Amino acid sequence: MAADKDPGEKLIVKNRRATFDYTIAETYEGGLALLGSEVKSLRAGKVDLVDSFAQVERGQMWLKQLRIAPLPQSSAYPHEPQRARKVLLHRHEIQSIEKAVTRSGYTMIPLRLYFKGGRVKVELALVKGKKTVDKRQDLVRKAAERDARVEMGRGKRGS
């Protein structure tokens, strides 16, 4: 994901378990329709992506189970912490996602939330769940890569 290094982006939260639990097929970037108190909570980092997912309902994309904790300063008009939030995507993107989800058994999950140009963006991924065997293979592959990096580092130092 080269977008992680964009200088105009400020990362809010990243779903680190996503790549371990799922095989990512395709990613999409969309805006989020939020209330003012929710944006302030995001700036304070009071958000949890665990168990959140996106779903198409009546031709619109909704992000569900995303928990944005209310701030104590906004106690006069607080927001509901786990309400469904609308994801702003193009119609053709939503239609292609809906086809993949209904026909191929994919799921949509958020990979990360970030600010881009002063607006809150969400990176959604079209994913399939990994089996335990796949997870073990990933752990073995990562361990081998880590060992190779360590050996290359030792070679540069002349040890």
Layout of strands and helices, then pairs:
Blueprint lengths: L8 E6 L3 H4 E11 L3 H8 L3 E2 L4 E5 L2 E5 L2 E2 L16 E4 L2 H14 L2 E10 L2 E11 L2 H26 L2
Antiparallel strand pairs: 1-8, 2-7, 2-9, 3-6, 4-5, 5-7, 8-9
Task: Write structural notes for this entry.
With 159 residues, the protein is an alpha+beta fold. It has one domain: Small protein B (Small Protein B, Chain: A). The chain is built from four helices and nine strands. The protein has a seven-stranded antiparallel β-sheet. Strands 3-6 form a two-stranded antiparallel ribbon. A hairpin with a 2-residue loop joins strand 4 and strand 5. The longest helix is centred in the C-terminal third of the chain and has 26 residues. The radius of gyration is 19 Å and the shape is globular. The two termini are 34 Å apart. 21% of the residues are buried.
> What value does the Rg take, in angstroms?
19 Å
Rough shape? globular
Spatial order of strands in the largest sheet: 1-8-9-2-7-5-4
Query: Got a strand count?
Result: 9
CATH superfamily caption: Small protein B
Helix content: 25-40%
Summed up, the helix count is: 4
Tell me the major beta sheet.
Answer: 7 strands, antiparallel
Q: Output mean pLDDT.
A: 86
Query: Would you identify the CATH architecture?
Result: Beta Barrel
Q: What is the highest CATH level, the class?
A: Mainly Beta
Total number of domains: 1
Fraction in beta strands: 35-45%
- As residue ranges, the low-confidence spans are none
Query: How far apart, in Å, are the first and last alpha carbons?
Result: 34 Å
Q: Order of SSEs, N→C? A: EHEHEEEEEHEEH
CATH topology: Small Protein B, Chain: A
The secondary-structure class comes to alpha+beta
